[in-house]
């Protein structure tokens, strides 16, 4: 008899002959006080699709392979042309239920016609799930955009306790996570551990597989589009304010207002990609610092356009002397350069640069 003809005959025999006394509605389940099944979850993250920062959720493509024993699905190969295994549709057999806790959305990415289970003659059943899961992932944005996030997935049976089910959760060995992720996020590590949730008594104990995915943000976009332009904008505006002639007051005011508008635009660009949380990211603090430096510089130039402090220094008797010595000439040249305006300009630029370096290296 051809193998294709044997498979449906064998499968019907397994489902009907062995459990005639079980009601049709409950035929797919074993009603017993003993352990129903012991199965193994081999799970790994196939691909990190993307992180939705505004809604604080993550889309991940998960793959799971599971194995368990079903005493109903056993046969003697000698009675069926030495057939030791068969493939059947997953929807035709009992499979262990599992739930991804707090999942906002879970979809099977493979079409139903490709969802098969592998059954051996001694009752070992194995199958494969390919899921796209949307899971909440609370973001910690203190170090944004140089942050690392950890997203958790909890997988457990929703209908059986530990007296009925034992699950071994594990990660596929030698996974190369370097190729995972997308343009913004890189997967750093994937790990799993088994947890026991105690509900007050043994019957309410639940075994949970906790899968942890550590992801790190790619910072090139934020550094080149926001941070470096912010520093350069501050540099050019502060230099323009302090180095221009005092008579060019209107021009200084125009430069300052232009810089303020530019930094407000950069801040809006950063805010559009972030959720509304109580945490203020480091990048936002840096942009605010640059903004305050520009505002302070504009106010100082408007209030003290002629640099009265430098004039007071230049009026000292030491600088009024007619001595033509080389030393005094050098001091006069240095005094013309070391004005209060120039010193303030240097301090503001240095502070902005140091803040940027601290932000990048933390």
TrEMBL record:
It comes from the Eukaryota. Residues 1-22 form the signal peptide. One of its GO terms (cellular component) is membrane. Residues 45-218 form the Neurotransmitter-gated ion-channel ligand-binding domain. The keyword Signal applies. It is a multi-pass membrane protein. InterPro entries: Neur_chan_lig-bd, Neur_chan_lig-bd_sf, Neur_channel, Neuro-gated_channel_TM_sf, Neuro_actylchol_rec, Neurotransmitter_ion_chnl_CS. This is Neur_chan_LBD domain-containing protein.
